[in-house]
């Protein structure tokens, strides 16, 4: 009898623990994904959003296989790791997006996004189409925003004016942009498509979308 009672209690505790865990995982606002061709205006829009709401948003800490630079702290500036561990984690599906620069791997893990969510802040992710496809496979339940340039000619003009790319890189970005625009416009791929033809108009669309969708269930806690 006592054994059955204890087993019942243990089962109860496990169920409670699982529930607690589920609550912790779901706690906080949904991540906000900004995707769009290079030069479409993601950083510009984001800057305004962060300026208007400095306490509401957070960024995930990336992983890297490069060594820490002086002053860089593990878990703060990056999660420092090594190649074999990172490859194993990627194979296990723990990453949303990875990239390699100068022989070092970088990536955003699902866990890092959940960590921001647990602080009650909205995790902002500026990711590419492949990352969007990946995040859709997870239970992170992100809000997906696609930022569109008015057209390719305007995009080229803005990228040239920004003056950050060599000619070859610029051409590549424009080719990629055309493919991204096709994916971005396909129905069902994003929750909202914001055409950034006029910055004030585009920002107010983003701000409205964020305030409608990221309100906390606790009134006043997360008033955007
Ligand atoms: N509505 C707009 N009208 C005119 N210029 C704009 C507009 N929005 C952004 N820009 C300009 O276009 C350029 C590209 O914008 P931004 O750097 O924000 O793009 P991005 O999508 O973040 O690009 P990347 O993915 O390469 O970082 C910037 O010089 C920015 O000032």
UniProtKB/TrEMBL annotation:
Keywords: ATP-binding, Coiled coil, Kinase, Nucleotide-binding, Transferase. Residues 29-211 form the Guanylate kinase-like domain. Its EC number is 2.7.4.8. Pfam families: Guanylate_kin. It comes from the Eukaryota. InterPro entries: AAA+_ATPase, GK/Ca_channel_bsu, Guanylate_kin-like_dom, Guanylate_kinase, Guanylate_kinase_CS, P-loop_NTPase. Gene3D superfamilies: P-loop containing nucleotide triphosphate hydrolases. One of its GO terms (molecular function) is GMP kinase activity. Residues 152-180 form a coiled coil. This is guanylate kinase.
């Amino acid at each position: 009898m006592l054994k059955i009672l204890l087993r019942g209690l243990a089962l109860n505790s496990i169920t409670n623990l699982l529930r607690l865990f589920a609550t912790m995982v779901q706690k906080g606002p949904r991540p906000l994904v900004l995707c769009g061709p290079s030069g479409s205006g993601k950083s510009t829009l984001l800057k305004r959003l962060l300026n208007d709401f400095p306490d509401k948003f957070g960024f995930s800490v990336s992983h890297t296989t490069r060594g820490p630079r002086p002053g860089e702290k593990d878990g703060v500036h990056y999660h420092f790791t090594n190649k074999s561990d990172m490859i194993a984690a990627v194979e296990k599906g723990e990453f949303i997006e990875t990239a390699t620069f100068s022989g070092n791997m970088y990536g955003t893990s699902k866990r890092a996004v959940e960590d921001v969510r647990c602080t009650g802040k909205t995790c902002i992710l500026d990711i590419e189409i492949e990352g969007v496809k990946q995040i859709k496979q997870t239970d992170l339940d992100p809000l997906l925003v696609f930022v569109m340039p008015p057209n390719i000619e305007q995009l080229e003009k803005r990228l040239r004016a920004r003056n950050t790319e060599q000619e070859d890189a610029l051409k590549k970005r424009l080719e990629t942009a055309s493919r991204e625009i096709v994916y971005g416009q396909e129905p069902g791929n994003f929750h909202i498509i914001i055409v950034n033809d006029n910055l004030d108009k585009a920002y107010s669309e983003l701000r409205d979308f964020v305030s409608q969708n990221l309100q906390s269930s606790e009134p006043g806690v997360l008033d955007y």
